[in-house]
Design goal:
heterodimer; A: about 280 residues; mainly alpha; 12 helices; globular; B: about 425 residues; two-stranded antiparallel ribbon; about 0% strand; flat
Chain lengths: ~280, ~425
């Protein structure tokens, strides 16, 4: 596959190039929808498509007015502020609880490990609409529907499975004799945790936290039901925007979010490499 | 040494306790420590997630509103039978009057009316009307007065419904979620023109299968290419798969709206190159096509990643061996390589399918009326029609379906093999 041998027949050549063309088209299908909104977000008109001026690369066809709208419109700014109030709190909660539980789960003797794991992972498996429905019923029963705390807890519980999975994966390569060595030198369990174990599993914890953050930051179904108008987040505002008055400001917001995803993706990749290097799984 | 052992019958630890007991204690302590670390999260998940799901299960069968709002009526009605051919007697109406007085004062009479209205349309207005006038009723002859307010109180069907749904629990919501109802002679299907849920479920499953198959068709070549390229190139190309995976769902949905709408980019391009004339632009959105295209794009990474991880582990020597034994390219692929990738296809397909049948946002935005899923109906019953019981029953049904597929996934891949990124 990797290279065409010099003795390849005409049929093999045709297949080789044909296959690569098909793959290229599928990659276009994957990536084009994300890239197409970036130039469109600089559209000077209020349309969702390329205008003649834009195609002619005329500067008058481009403008920053949709970005301007995003950064000055109180609806969008309120939604952004809410997202930034909810996501970090949910991330903190799920990262702390998730890391502790992952350390507990990776001990050698855990009774009912399978059952516990199933319960802890369940928020990731149950479809969001069902979680949202259940939370809406239950949280309105206990008076937490439409509160900031309710949304934070709902988002935190959705993020924990990701933290558990990433931290557990990091702990697989963790050398337990390091903990014993620390203990034998007189460190108490808390000191051992913060000075020995934590620095080593930190990449896993951070990437779990990033997963939890993006879960909350992108989440719309649950907040739609559990939240009220005063917890309107960025995705919620986009959802109403797409359903009711389609405004091109959405494209500007989308471009900002794509930039954030690229940054997150890069960070995660760097963390993964660092973690592998720390655990000696790959050289350099 | 063996003498000591023989005398005491057991080995001793350094502190003099039997070694077995000492080890058991250490093990117990270790288990306890592990559980203590897990406990906070377990408690948190149980309160914020498991309890809501349990609450939903409970709501899907709960019916206490009827016996709680109309306690006396329910008791008085117990002796009545619809076979008598006429509405219940005066004592039942007297009980109804007493119950309605309390209910109207607490303003809950409309709620019980609404509840019974799900089963027999028209009851809601009966309760609303009577609730307003019940205070002004004179003593005695209640049956006549109630029937004067609304003829409905004289109808057998109304009383039959109240009697049938007078228990604390009901199967009514579950029956409604599969287009059935509790008729006078047991469970029966609703009239043809009122059946929607089984149809909607069928459509959800059908569209999910179509989306899964498209994902396999598009994902397989990409997985194959990535697994067979040099690591440096494949890592670079993998970014093209991971970027959509990491991009917000709403961003991807909005870009599909931009691309697919009638004045959108795809139609514009087709018109510009002359494949389409300006007045027959394709309708690619607000129908099933929109849902299929957008969701295939959204779920494709979930197919490619498991496929890639399985294909990466297939040694290239297998195919080389097959070819050296005289197999053609196609035979080597079909008889040797492909069977090895089936676990990957299975894992990706079940994952895509499970994710797809529970989708809400994308069908809601690009599906129009013909491309929506059962989850959209659940959302509708929660926020618009307020029939929470039915929403809960539909949710429980969907959850049961997903758990079955999830069990399959566990059998094929194993729950511990869930990987991210």
């Amino acid at each position: 596959m990797s290279a065409l041998p010099p003795y390849a027949s005409a049929g093999q050549k045709a297949w080789y190039y044909g296959f690569r063309t098909i793959c290229a088209l599928i990659f276009v299908f994957l990536i084009l929808p994300i890239l197409v909104i970036i130039p469109l977000s600089f559209n000077a008109s209020d349309f969702f498509t390329f205008t003649k001026e834009m195609l002619a690369l005329d500067p008058s066809g481009y403008s920053l007015k949709h970005y301007n709208d995003f950064f000055t419109n109180s609806d969008w700014q309120g939604a952004l502020a809410n997202s930034l109030r909810i996501a970090p709190a949910a991330t903190l909660l799920s990262t702390m609880l998730g890391t502790l539980a992952a350390i507990g789960l990776s001990q050698s003797h855990v009774p009912f490990r399978g059952a516990i794991m199933a319960v802890l992972i369940s928020p990731m498996i149950v479809p969001l609409i069902i979680s949202a429905a259940g939370m809406y019923f239950f949280y309105s029963r206990i008076g937490m529907q439409g509160t900031y705390l309710g949304v934070v807890m709902a988002h935190a519980v959705l993020g924990t499975p990701f933290v558990i999975i990433t931290v557990t994966a990091t702990l697989v390569g963790f050398d337990k004799s390091l903990v014993r060595a620390a203990a034998s030198m007189g460190a108490n369990p808390v000191t051992t945790f913060f000075r020995v174990q934590m620095p080593l599993i930190l990449p896993g914890v951070i990437s779990g936290g990033l997963f939890a953050f993006i879960t909350s930051f992108d989440e719309v179904v649950v907040v739609l039901f559990v939240g009220s108008a005063s917890q309107k987040t960025l995705p919620w505002q986009m959802f109403t925007g797409l359903r009711e008055q389609i405004s091109p400001t959405i494209l500007a917001v989308a471009t900002v979010l794509v930039t954030i995803s690229i940054l997150l993706l890069t960070t995660l990749e760097l963390l993964r490499r660092r973690s592998e290097r720390l655990r000696g799984l790959s050289p350099g | 040494m063996s003498d000591v052992q023989a005398q005491s019958g057991q080995m001793l630890a350094a502190d003099g306790t039997p070694l077995k007991a000492s080890l058991a204690r250490a093990l117990r302590r270790q288990k306890l420590r592990a559980l203590m670390l897990i406990a906070p999260l377990l408690l948190f998940v149980v309160i914020t997630f498991i309890a809501p799901i349990a609450d939903m299960l409970f709501r899907s069968v709960e019916n206490s509103i009827v016996p709680e709002t109309l306690p006396k009526t329910v008791i008085a009605l117990a002796d009545w039978s619809p076979e008598s051919g006429e509405a219940p007697g005066e004592e039942v109406f007297a009980a109804l009057h007493a119950d309605m007085l309390v209910a109207a004062a607490a303003k809950v009479h409309t709620k019980v009316g609404q509840r019974l209205n799900y089963e027999t349309p028209g009851i809601s207005s009966l309760f609303r009307k009577s609730g307003r006038r019940v205070k002004r009723m004179e003593e005695g002859n209640y049956k006549e007065q109630f029937i004067k307010i609304d003829d409905g109180w004289g109808e057998l069907a109304v009383w039959e419904t109240i009697q049938r749904y007078s228990g604390n629990y009901t199967s009514g919501y579950f029956l409604a979620s599969v287009d059935a109802e509790l008729g006078s002679d047991g469970v029966q299907m609703k009239p043809e023109d009122e059946q929607i849920y089984l149809f909607l479920l069928g459509r959800t499953l059908f569209l999910s299968v179509v989306i899964t198959v498209s994902c396999i068709l598009l994902g397989y070549p990409i997985g194959f290419l990535l697994a067979n390229l040099p690591l440096r190139t494949s890592n670079l190309l993998l970014i093209l798969v991971l970027l959509p995976f990491w991009t917000s769902l709403l961003v991807r949905t909005s870009s599909w709206i931009v691309l697919l709408q009638q004045q959108g980019v795809v139609n514009d391009v087709l018109v510009t190159i002359g494949i389409l004339s300006d007045d027959n632009r394709l309708e690619l959105m607000y129908n099933q096509a929109g849902t299929i295209i957008a969701m295939t794009h959204i779920l494709l990474p979930f197919m490619i990643l498991p496929l890639y991880s399985v294909m990466k582990t297939i040694p290239p020597s297998y195919v080389r061996a097959a070819k050296s034994l005289g197999a053609t390219d196609w035979t080597a692929f079909w008889r040797v390589y492909f069977p090895n990738t089936i676990p990957g296809i299975g894992a990706g397909a079940v994952l895509t399918f499970i994710l797809s049948i529970g989708y809400y946002i994308t069908p809601e935005l690009v599906g129009g009326t013909s491309g929506i899923f059962i989850s959209n109906r659940i959302a509708y019953h929660i926020s618009s029609s307020l029939n929470w019981g039915l929403a809960a029953a539909l949710g429980v049904g969907l959850l049961a379906l997903i758990l079955v597929f999830y069990w399959l996934y566990d059998r094929i891949v194993g729950i511990d093999n869930v990987k991210l990124g």
